[in-house]
Write a structure and sequence with these properties.
By secondary structure, the chain is of the alpha/beta class. It has 2 domains: about 120 residues, Lyase, Ornithine Decarboxylase, Chain A, domain 1; about 220 residues, Alpha-Beta Barrel (TIM Barrel). Helices cover about 30% and strands about 20% of the residues. The chain is built from 10 helices and 17 strands. Strands 1, 10, 11, 12, 13, 14, 15, 16 and 17 form a 9-stranded mixed beta sheet that branches. Helix 3 runs parallel beside helix 4. The chain is globular. It starts with 17 loop residues before the first strand and ends in an 8-residue tail after the last strand.
């Protein structure tokens, strides 16, 4: 049975290995985050690099999100081609040819871009002028990640340059990526307290430059409760909550945070078995291992070990348990959802659960391989 023919069939019909989305769990995750944003008076702009799918992005927008974030120009183009009308490229674009693409895209949708340099501002202004396009420009500040972003006290200078170039200053991009996966709540609390101090510095710099900050955007799945509590951020960019990988599930949840469910799985099958191991047909060509190996859904007594490109090894943690039998289906929870999704052309959407459910739809990974 081909992948297309499995629509309407029970989950047992899904050929392996396959990346499967539990649509019921995903819908609950979408609603829980949307409800959080509504209850706290915040805008929600989920990061679509998690799923790279225009269809999933549309589900998030239908539930209340104002739009989505992406990291790459080509990701933005793919999602706009798929019908998404409001996109924030939360990254710097310096190349003139790529900025021409940004400007062309701005004529087709509501678009925003982050900047952290005078050169980036000048090149963006030239591209937009040539295309007759408009864009919202966010000054990115480094709030502790040590990646992109200007020093917070320089935010006023850069924002002034944005305005002087005839561009629309839309606010601050303030995202702390490293904080998302810090294991303890205390660690994340300290990191976001530092980020909040950086935002306050940047706001003071803007005020000194005679500018008002329309919006502070940022936050992720691991820290959004803390950004919310600060009262500084007005827009949340959390993305992984929609699918929830093993790594995010392993960290201590924020106090009062909604609980998100695993919705992304690799369906695999036992293709070989020995006394000390079962071998499944899902190696690291089917799931990313940058955040560690996958977990085994519903079998805490099993440990997954790397078997190479095409295979995974299952060993018992508990000698009193039994290995799965030859031919059995084994559901894996990927360590990191974003790069795992990027390995697949299609997500298999299941309704009714992983045991008794049926395949409802195939979801195209529209922005797969969009790296530019």
């Amino acid at each position: 049975m081909t992948r297309t023919d499995c629509v309407g069939q029970p989950v047992a019909a899904i050929d392996t290995p396959a990346l499967v989305v539990d649509l019921d769990a995903m819908a609950r995750n979408i609603e829980r985050m949307a409800a959080w944003a509504r209850e706290h008076g915040l805008r929600l702009r989920p990061h679509a690099k998690t799923h790279k799918s225009a269809w999933i992005a549309a589900q998030q927008i239908a539930a209340g999100a104002v739009g989505v974030c992406v990291q790459k120009t080509s990701e933005a183009e793919a999602l706009v081609d798929g019908g998404i009308g409001d996109v924030f490229i939360t990254n710097e674009v310096i190349d003139a040819t790529k900025l021409a693409r940004v400007a062309a895209l701005a004529r087709r949708c509501t678009l925003a871009l982050a900047v952290d340099s005078k050169l980036g501002i000048e090149r963006l202004a030239a591209a937009l002028q040539a295309a007759g396009a408009d864009i919202a420009v966010f000054v990115e500040i480094d709030v502790g990640h040590g990646r992109c972003g200007t020093a917070p006290p320089q935010a006023g200078v850069l924002a002034r340059q944005v305005v002087a170039a005839g561009l629309r200053f839309a606010g601050l991009q303030a995202y702390h990526g490293r904080a998302q996966h810090m294991r303890s709540g205390a660690e994340r609390g300290a990191a976001i307290a530092h980020a909040a101090a950086c935002v306050r510095q940047a706001l003071a710099a803007l005020a000194s430059a005679g500018l008002r900050c329309p919006l502070v955007s940022g936050a992720g799945t691991g820290s959004f409760v803390l950004e919310t509590a600060s009262g500084l951020w007005g827009e949340l960019q959390a993305g992984s909550y929609v699918l929830m990988d093993r790594d995010y599930a392993d960290i201590a949840p924020g106090e009062g945070a909604p609980r998100f469910e695993h919705a992304l799985f690799v369906k695999s099958q036992v293709v070989s078995r020995a006394e000390d191991r079962a071998v499944v047909d899902a190696g690291h060509k089917s799931h990313a291992i940058d955040s560690g190996l996958p977990g085994v859904w519903g079998r805490e007594d099993l440990e997954f070990a790397n078997g190479g490109d095409e295979h995974g090894l299952l060993r018992l943690r508990d000698s009193s348990a039994e290995l799965p039998a030859l031919g059995d289906a084994v559901w894996l929870v990927p360590g990191h959802c974003d790069p795992t999704v990027n390995l697949h052309n299609t997500l298999v959407g299941v309704r009714g659960g992983l045991v008794h459910g049926r395949v409802e739809r195939l979801i195209t990974v529209d922005a797969r391989g969009c790296l530019s």
